[in-house]
Amino acid sequence: MTDAAQAHAHRRLLDQAATGARVLDVASELAALRKDIAELRALLAPPSSVILTGPDAMRVFERLTQEGGAA
Predict the structure, then answer these.
(1) pLDDT tier for residue 71 given thresholds of 50, 70 and 90
(2) How far does CA 26 lie from the centroid of its chain?
(3) 55 near 63, Cβ under 8 Å?
């Protein structure tokens, strides 16, 4: 193998090693992003309880304040 061919092969091996490292970095970054997205989705998910609005909410609020005041 000539010096030029050996240098070319060496450069190619270094490029492959660097590319492999970048692929691992991208994979770990993707895993971290997936975890972050799962956490955000959990935070943004609607509550499992019923959401009261309007007159229903006022009725429940009044009942809770009366019960709290009577205790």
Answers:
(1) very low
(2) 15
(3) no
